[in-house]
Hints:
alpha/beta, six-stranded mixed beta sheet
Amino acid sequence: LPALPHRRRRHSDGAMCWRVQADSPRRKEQPTGDAGKGSGAAKQAGAAQAPAAPGAAGVVRVGLIADIQYADCEDGTDFEATEQRHFRNSIEIARSAVRCWNAEPVEVVIQLGDIIDGCNVRLNASGDAMAKVLKTLDQCTASRRFDLIGNHELYNVRRENLASSGLRCFDDSGKTYYSAHLGGMWEAIFLDAYEHALIGMGDGEEGYMKARDIMQQNNPRVLDPHNRNWFDGLPEDLHRFVPYNGGASPEQVAWLEGALVAAAVAGRKVLVFSHVPLYEPATKKKTLIWNFQEIMRVLHSHKDTVVAVFAGHDHNGGYAVDGVGLHHVTMNSPLTAPVGSDCFAVLECHDSGMARFIAHGRACVESGTNGNGRAYAEIVCAKGAQNLPVEGTAILGETEKLSSVVAMGFTPEQARGALDMANGSVDGAIQLLVE
């Protein structure tokens, strides 16, 4: 291989963790455009910057992963048979993530919810599956991990039993929505997207009863256990009112306002984490928190404090910048990633007020593409920043990618090394090899 601008780090098991520098083909510079578009278009305004060196002062590193949804069962599909799911492979991606996070190293890990799949209930394997994934994540050397509550947690574990499940989804006072200082100038706010929900709770519980009221007003057919046609005749703007989504209480929304005021007074920048997305252009109408408008109004009133929102839930991922410049990153799911590939990220939080989402594999792809669009190699989250997906990142298994590069006349060793350095992009690998 020719000399290339990259860094490599060795995993604890001897594997290499490659990262291409920002002056390599992973970034394209384009004229500044309208950051308010939801298209996922294009670049950081100004000169490209290299990723920070390990242990660099003024940088907090966070490992991110969403929707692992592990189960010890054969591959399957979603209910609509449009999404291929690799249940056993998802934990392999989690293991790869831990190796990479330890090589970085990251100080914090944030698991965005849906750690195991709901099918574990019928397999009578919820406890074993949870223990297996938690054991994997516990191998990370990060000093802290935060787990969000997703719908699949609540399929497997009643809300009242979450505290004893091994998940770290509470603060010291027992609340499921809270803030935490990540380090430096950075504050994380964790939302509970299922405080009002039809899952994980039952009759007589306040969150469940409130959810029934919400459904009665917006989509009463979901309350009929014999009716699975939740969307038939339902206006698209109401498609979020289904049992696999949830809502935040007025108390949580009021708390969010106060938390953002406190962060601003302390001079901190805020990153918001929610299992369910808040902004439609970064996901789809079927995968939004029920009262996203109320939450977004609060975030927009603190647009100089909030930098970005990170979510999972929508396995197809998405990215958009809203009208006040907040970045919304919806992470793709390891469950649907091609076998042999990765699907996680490292988030670098700089004391300049910029956060950089560095993808490993197809951790975030273009919105509205059903997961088949171009992937983002990195996303710079800062006011005025725009980000381009990488060209030529159609979903390919590792064998097909390797064969594509070898077919251009390179050896398998050259092809494999270049694909690692190009973050899995065939076009990027070829460009590296011919330079």
